Structure to design on (924 residues):
C-alpha cells in the first residue's frame, strides 16, 4: 500500500488514533530523553546505560507486581525508587572514578555499563519475553467519538507534562537546581565555589533515572513484551531526541521526544511500505540535525578556546 | 644491534614459522579447535580495523558490526552457487539484476571490503566532523541502519531469513594468510607518514591541523580503511559460518571488538592480536560457566546460560576502570623487546625497563 | 618592501562580546613584528583569525605567497593555510605529547608529501625517496637546537624551555614563509629569554622568515621587533617602532593604569 492509498484510506478517526499514539510514544521518548540531556549537560558524556535503566525499570515493575504482589501504584513507587538507586549506583561505580580520565574512557565505561546491564538482565531474567501485567484501570478503553483510546494514552502525556513542570521548577527555582546549573556551566569553578559536585551529580542521575523509571513503567504498560534488549532502541532514539532538541536543554529533550515519537508513528501511518525502516527514521533525523544544526533546535552554540 | 634488515629477516622467519603452525592446526587438529583459531584470526582482523580509527586516530567509531555485515553479505550474496539461489531465496525471489552474478570468494571478499569502504565514505562525510560521543552514537546509528536495510531489502539480501549454503571456508592456513596480509599492511601504514598523521590527529587535532594535516581527509581515509578491513573480516566470518543473518550483526557485536582493543591496548597492533586471542579464547573457555556446575554433587546455581557474557561485561568494566592502557598501551612488541626478553626474561616484566 | 600579510580592518565578535575590533595589520617580508597588550586584549584571537581557526565577523586576511601572489585566506581551513606557508606555535604549547620528539617534527613534513597512502604503505621507491629527504631535514633541524640526542624521548618528557623550542622547530619543518609565535618566551627566565631572542633572530635570517609574535616579555619585544602593534580590549591603541610605542601615552596608560593625580 503506497502513500496515496494510505492517505485516501485515512479517516479522521484513524488519523486521531495515530496522533494519540504518536503523542503517547513521544511522551515516553521525552521522559527518557530528559535523563540523557541532564547527564550530558553536567558531565558532557552520553550515558549509554540510560536505555538499559529503562529496561531494568520495566523488570522492577514486573517483579514488583508479580513476585511481590504489590498493588500497581505501590509497584510504581517501588520502581521509581529502585531505578533511581540503580542510576546512582552506576554513576558511583562506573563514571565517578573516571571523571578525570580522558573522554574516551568514560565513553567506554558507559558502553560497558550498558553491556553489563543487558547481559545481567539476560542472565537473571532469561531472554524470554515476559508479559507485563495488565492493569485494568489504565488499560481500559475510553470512547471519544468513534475513536477508542486507552486510558494510559492520556495518562502518559499528562504525566510527562507534570514531570516536566516539576523538573523545571526544581532546576530554575531551587538551590539544588541552581547548583546543577552551575555545575553544568563549569564544574571546576562550581567546585571551587563550595558546591559539592559529587552530590549534585548523583542528584542528576537520581532524577534522570527516576524519570526513566516513570517512562519505563508506562512503556511496560503500553508495550507489554519485556526483554533484556528492550532498552536498546529506545535508548538510542531518546538520545537522538535529546540531540534534536539541543543537548543539555531539558525543554529541548521533551520537544525532541515528541518530534521523534510523532514522526515515527506518522511516517509509518502514511508510508506503510516503509514500516520496516521505522527505527531508521530516528537516525536519519539525527544525521540531518547534526549536519545542519549540530546544537539542536533549542541549543546554544559554543566556541572552543584555542 | 638490530638493523632493519635483520628485523625484516626475523619477521619473515616468524611468519613462516606461524604458517607452519597454522598448517599443523589445519592438518592435525579437530574441527572444534580449527574453528576457534579461525574465529580468533577473524576477530583479530576486525579488532585491528577498529583500532585504526579508535586507537590510532582517536576517533570513537562504533560502526564495525555494520561494515562486517556488508562484507559478510557480499560473500553471502555472490558466492552461493547460482543454481542454489532460488532455494535459498524461497520467500522473495532474488533480484534479477544480480541473480546470475557469481564471484569466487576472493573476489567477493575484496568487493565486500570496497563496498564497505564506500559506505564509510558516504557516512564519514557528515559524521566525522562530530565530537567524541556524537560520533559514537552516529556510527552506532549507521551500523543499525545498515542492519535494518539488510533486513528489509529482501530481494537482495533475503531479508530476515538470512542467506544459507554459503560455500564454507575453514582452512586455517588461508585465513591465517589473510590475517598476515592485513597485519602487515596496517603495520606498514602506521609506520608511514600517513600513520604518523593519524597519530597526530589523536594527540592534538588543532595542532595537527595547524601543521597542515587536513583533518577531514585523514579521518575519512582512516575510516574507509577501517571499514575495508572490517568488511574483509565480515566476509571471512560469513564464509566461516556458512550462513549470514541480520541478527548476527547487532551493534552489540561491536562491543566484542571494543573489548579486544581496550584489553589489548588502543593504539597497539600487537595488542589487537593479543586482545583477540584472549577474547576469543575467553568466550570459548568461559562457555563452561554457562552450564550448571556441580561440586561434590551439589549444583551451584550461579552458573547458567548468560553468565559467560556477564563475566565478559564485568571484564570490560574492570579493564576500563583499572587498566585503561590495556596490555600493550600504545606500544608494540618489537624485535628489540623480544631479544631483550630472551636475554633477561625476568627483568623484562619490571616496570620502567626500557628495551633499546 | 613587499608585504607578506595584510588585513583589512578585522573584527571578531562572539555573541555580545567584541574580542577584536578593526584590527588592520601589515607585516612586511623579513621583518619581526610583535603584537602586545594586556591579557585578554584579543591577541590570540587575532592569531586565530589569521590561521583559520576563527572566521572573522568582519574583514579579510590576505597572504602573499613565495611567488608574489596575494591570496585571500580568510576563514580557510587551518591545514590549507599551513600549506600556503603560515605556521604557528601555541600559547599553551600543543606538542604531540605522547609521541617522540622526532615524530613531532617529522609529522610537520607530512603536508609536503606527494605520495598517496598506498604508495606510502607499500613503501614504493618514490615514497622512500621523499621519506629519506624528510628524515635528513628533521635531523638537521633537531641538531640545530641540540635535540637530536633526545629524539626518542616523548615530547612531554622534555623540560619546558626545550618544549617551546621543539614547537618552534616543528613549525619550521613546514617551510613557512610567515611564522606566528604565540608567547614563545612564556615562563622563561631572563637567560632563557635572551637565548630565545637570539634564536628567533637566527632562524629569521637562516630560513628567510617573516615573524609575527605575541609576547609579554618586553625586553624581547623591544630588542628584536621592527614593528609593534598594541592592543587593548580588542582595539589597536598604537602601532609603530619600539621607541614610538614606548613613548605612547595610551600604551603607558593601558599597561600601568591612569595616573591618579592627573
Amino acid at each position: 500500500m503506497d502513500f496515496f492509498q494510505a492517505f485516501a484510506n485515512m479517516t479522521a478517526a484513524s488519523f486521531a488514533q495515530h496522533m494519540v499514539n504518536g503523542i503517547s510514544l513521544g511522551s515516553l521518548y521525552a521522559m527518557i530523553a530528559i535523563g540523557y540531556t541532564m547527564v550530558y549537560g553536567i558531565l558532557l558524556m552520553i550515558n549509554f546505560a540510560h536505555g538499559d535503566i529503562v529496561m531494568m525499570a520495566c523488570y522492577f515493575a514486573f517483579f514488583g507486581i508479580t513476585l511481590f504482589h504489590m498493588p500497581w501504584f505501590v509497584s510504581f513507587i517501588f520502581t521509581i525508587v529502585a531505578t533511581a538507586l540503580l542510576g546512582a549506583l552506576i554513576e558511583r561505580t562506573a563514571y565517578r572514578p573516571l571523571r578525570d580520565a580522558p573522554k574516551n574512557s568514560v565513553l567506554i565505561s558507559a558502553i560497558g555499563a550498558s553491556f553489563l546491564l543487558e547481559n545481567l538482565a539476560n542472565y537473571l531474567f532469561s531472554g524470554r519475553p515476559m508479559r507485563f501485567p495488565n492493569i485494568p484501570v489504565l488499560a481500559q478503553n475510553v470512547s471519544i467519538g468513534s475513536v477508542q483510546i486507552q486510558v494510559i494514552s492520556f495518562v502518559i502525556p499528562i504525566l510527562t507534562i507534570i514531570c516536566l513542570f516539576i523538573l523545571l521548577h526544581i532546576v530554575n527555582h531551587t538551590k539544588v537546581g541552581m547548583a546543577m546549573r552551575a555545575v553544568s556551566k563549569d564544574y571546576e569553578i562550581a567546585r571551587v565555589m563550595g558546591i559539592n559536585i559529587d552530590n549534585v551529580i548523583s542528584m542528576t542521575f537520581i532524577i534522570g533515572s527516576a524519570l526513566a523509571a516513570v517512562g519505563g513503567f508506562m512503556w511496560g504498560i503500553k508495550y507489554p513484551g519485556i526483554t533484556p534488549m528492550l532498552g536498546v532502541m529506545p535508548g538510542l532514539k531518546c538520545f537522538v531526541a535529546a540531540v534534536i532538541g539541543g543537548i543539555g536543554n531539558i525543554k529541548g529533550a521533551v520537544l525532541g521526544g515528541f518530534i521523534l515519537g510523532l514522526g515515527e508513528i506518522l511516517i509509518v501511518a502514511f508510508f506503510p511500505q516503509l514500516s520496516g525502516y521505522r527505527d531508521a527514521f530516528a537516525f536519519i533525523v539525527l544525521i540531518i540535525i547534526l549536519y545542519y544544526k549540530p546544537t539542536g533546535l533549542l541549543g546554544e552554540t559554543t566556541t572552543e578556546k584555542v | 644491534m638490530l638493523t632493519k634488515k635483520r628485523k625484516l629477516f626475523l619477521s619473515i622467519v616468524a611468519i613462516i614459522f606461524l604458517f607452519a603452525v597454522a598448517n599443523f592446526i589445519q592438518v592435525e587438529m579437530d574441527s572444534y579447535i580449527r574453528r576457534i583459531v579461525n574465529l580468533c584470526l577473524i576477530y583479530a582482523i576486525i579488532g585491528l580495523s577498529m583500532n585504526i580509527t579508535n586507537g590510532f586516530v582517536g576517533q570513537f567509531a562504533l560502526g564495525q558490526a555494520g561494515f562486517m555485515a556488508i562484507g559478510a553479505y557480499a560473500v553471502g550474496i555472490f558466492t552461493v552457487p547460482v543454481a542454489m539461489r532460488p532455494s535459498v531465496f524461497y520467500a522473495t525471489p532474488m533480484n534479477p539484476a544480480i541473480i546470475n552474478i557469481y564471484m569466487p570468494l576472493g573476489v567477493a571478499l575484496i568487493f565486500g571490503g570496497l563496498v564497505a569502504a564506500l559506505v564509510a565514505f558516504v557516512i564519514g562525510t557528515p559524521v566525522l566532523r562530530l565530537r567524541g560521543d556524537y560520533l559514537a552514537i552516529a556510527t552506532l546509528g549507521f551500523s543499525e541502519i545498515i542492519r535494518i536495510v539488510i533486513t528489509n531489502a529482501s530481494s537482495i539480501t533475503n531479508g530476515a531469513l538470512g542467506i544459507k549454503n554459503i560455500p564454507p571456508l575453514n582452512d586455517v592456513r588461508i585465513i591465517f594468510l589473510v590475517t598476515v596480509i592485513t597485519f602487515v599492511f596496517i603495520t606498514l601504514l602506521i609506520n608511514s607518514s600517513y600513520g604518523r598523521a593519524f597519530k597526530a590527529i589523536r594527540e592534538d587535532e588543532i595542532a595537527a591541523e595547524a601543521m597542515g594535516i587536513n583533518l577531514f581527509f585523514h579521518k575519512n581515509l582512516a575510516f574507509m580503511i577501517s571499514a575495508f578491513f572490517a568488511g574483509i573480516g565480515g566476509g571471512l566470518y560469513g564464509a566461516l559460518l556458512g550462513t549470514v543473518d541480520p541478527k548476527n550483526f547487532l551493534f552489540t557485536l561491536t562491543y566484542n571488538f571494543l573489548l579486544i582493543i581496550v584489553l589489548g591496548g588502543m593504539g597497539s597492533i600487537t595488542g589487537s592480536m593479543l586482545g583477540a586471542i584472549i577474547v576469543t579464547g575467553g568466550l570459548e573457555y568461559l562457555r563452561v560457566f554457562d552450564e550448571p556446575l556441580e561440586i561434590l554433587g551439589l549444583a551451584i546455581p550461579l552458573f547458567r546460560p548468560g553468565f559467560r557474557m556477564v563475566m565478559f561485561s564485568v571484564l570490560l568494566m574492570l579493564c576500563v576502570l583499572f587498566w585503561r592502557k590495556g596490555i600493550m598501551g600504545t606500544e608494540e612488541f618489537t624485535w628489540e623487546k623480544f631479544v631483550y626478553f630472551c636475554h633477561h626474561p625476568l627483568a623484562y616484566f619490571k616496570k620502567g625497563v626500557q628495551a633499546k | 618592501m613587499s608585504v607578506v600579510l595584510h588585513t583589512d580592518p578585522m573584527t571578531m565578535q562572539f555573541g555580545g562580546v567584541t574580542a577584536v575590533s578593526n584590527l588592520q595589520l601589515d607585516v612586511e617580508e623579513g621583518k619581526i613584528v610583535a603584537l602586545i597588550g594586556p591579557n585578554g586584549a584579543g591577541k590570540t584571537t587575532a592569531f586565530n583569525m589569521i590561521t583559520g581557526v576563527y572566521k572573522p565577523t568582519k574583514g579579510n586576511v590576505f597572504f602573499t605567497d613565495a611567488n608574489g601572489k596575494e591570496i585571500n585566506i580568510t576563514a580557510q581551513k587551518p591545514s590549507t593555510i599551513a600549506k600556503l606557508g603560515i605556521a604557528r606555535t601555541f600559547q599553551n604549547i600543543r606538542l604531540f605529547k605522547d609521541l617522540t620528539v622526532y615524530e613531532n617534527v617529522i609529522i610537520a613534513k607530512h603536508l609536503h608529501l606527494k605520495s598517496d597512502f598506498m604508495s606510502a604503505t607499500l613503501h614504493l621507491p618514490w615514497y622512500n625517496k621523499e621519506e629519506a629527504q624528510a628524515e635528513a631535514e628533521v635531523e638537521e633541524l633537531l641538531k640545530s637546537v641540540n635535540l637530536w640526542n633526545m629524539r626518542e624521548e616523548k615530547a612531554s618528557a622534555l623540560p619546558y624551555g626545550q618544549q617551546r623550542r621543539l614547537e618552534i622547530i616543528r613549525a619550521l619543518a613546514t617551510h613557512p614563509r610567515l611564522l606566528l609565535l604565540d608567547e614563545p618566551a612564556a615562563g622563561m627566565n631572563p637567560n632563557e629569554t635572551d637565548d630565545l631572542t637570539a634564536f628567533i633572530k637566527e632562524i629569521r635570517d637562516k630560513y628567510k622568515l617573516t615573524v609575527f609574535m605575541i609576547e609579554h616579555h618586553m625586553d624581547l619585544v623591544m630588542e628584536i621587533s621592527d614593528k609593534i602593534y598594541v592592543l587593548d580590549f580588542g582595539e589597536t591603541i598604537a602601532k609603530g617602532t619600539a621607541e614610538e610605542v614606548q613613548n605612547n601615552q595610551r600604551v603607558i596608560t593601558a599597561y600601568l593604569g591612569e595616573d591618579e593625580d592627573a
Notes: Chain C has a mean pLDDT of 90. Chain C touches chain A through six residues (CB under 8 Å). Residues 84 and 132 of chain C are 23 Å apart (CA to CA).
